[in-house]
Amino acid sequence: IYIEDQAKDTLLYAQNLDVSLSPWEFIKSGKISITGVDIEDFIINVNQKDSVSDFNFQFIIDAFSSTDTTQVDTTKSSLVVVIEDINLRNGKLNYDILSDSLTPGTFNASHISLYDVNINLDLNSIDTDKFDIALNSLAAKERSGVEIKNLKGQFYSDKDQLWVDRLSLNLPNSHLITNNARYNLATDEFEITTEDTEIEPADLIAFLPNLKFLTNRIGLNTNIKGTLPEINIQSLNLTYGEDSYLAGNARLASYE
Questions:
Q1: Residue 91 burial (CB < 10 Å; 0-12/13-18/19+)?
Q2: Do 83 and 34 form a contact (C-beta atoms < 8 A)?
Q3: 65 phi, psi to nearest 5 deg
Q4: Distances from the Cα of 7 to the Cαs of 2, 11, 60, in angstroms?
Q5: pTM of the predicted protein model
Q6: Which end of the chain is more exposed for a tag (fewer CB within 10 A), N or C?
Q7: Which residues pair with 184 in a beta bridge?
């Protein structure tokens, strides 16, 4: 598969694409069940001229957008789509805001370049009001030096409520475990609880270069709740190496 953008640059390339369907499931229940998607050796290049310009794939969206102004029935469809066992192997993902400068050796949100991307997930429900996504594994490297050994978790929504269960992130020498992470889009209420988190400063130097002066491992356990912009740190336990320990709580009422 090869798709160019309007500048004749590569937008999407994939050497192999396999899709498996279950016609019987559609006949039996009206559910579109895609039982397997495998994409191997792929490249995706997304860019913008500047932060307010359209993405380079906007022409595809425009091509499928209807110009017919006839009123249509917007009643929500009962069609259910389930996509199981999605495998993305050996990929590259690039995102660039072309007008922004580069910062070699430091992570730059305007120029993200991922390689050795391998992802396995299940889209149990892609209903915008009630989605259920199981991220079974994600591994990738970024040109700034950041490496994700494994990221996994279960992502849910129920209208305005978003939450993540069993989120686990492993870097080369660090790991983050979040038992509970919730956010309400309507009320801005949120909650996040971490436990048994250990951070090796070297793993985060690309984000925070000043961490190069820290030599010991950081441990973190915390429970944070609030309604933005108010933040309540109900418990905080922080260790640095074997000799430094901080325990406490805090409240941030407003900030800019």
A1: buried
A2: yes
A3: -80, 135
A4: 14, 10, 13
A5: 0.82
A6: C
A7: 161
The enclosing H or E element of 51 equals none
Contacts 24+ apart (CB under 8 A), 127-133: 127/80, 128/157, 129/157, 129/158, 129/159, 130/157, 130/158, 130/159, 131/155, 131/156, 131/157, 132/156
Q: For the segment 240-254, what is each residue's pLDDT rounded down to a tens digit?
A: 988 899 999 888 887
Residues 241, 244, 248, CA angle at the centre, nearest 5°? 125
Q: What angle do CA 34, 38, 40 make, to 5 degrees?
A: 160
Report residue 151 as tokens: 């990221």
What span, in angstroms and rounded, lies between the C-alpha atoms of 201 and 37? Answer: 37
Which of 164, 152, 122 has its CA nearest to residue 33?
Answer: 122
First-to-final CA distance of the chain: 46
Contacts of 119 (CB under 8 A, 6+ apart): 86, 87, 88, 91, 135, 137, 138, 139
Residue 130 has pLDDT above 90, yes or no: no
Q: What digits encode the pLDDT tens for the residues 50-107?
A: 989 999 999 988 887 766 656 655 555 556 777 888 999 999 999 999 999 998 889 9
Smallest CA-to-CA distance from 187 within 166, 161, 210 is with 161
Backbone region of residue 62 per phi and psi (left: phi > 0; alpha: psi in -120 to 50; beta: other values): alpha
CB-count exposure of residue 123 (10 Å: 0-12, 13-18, 19+) = middle
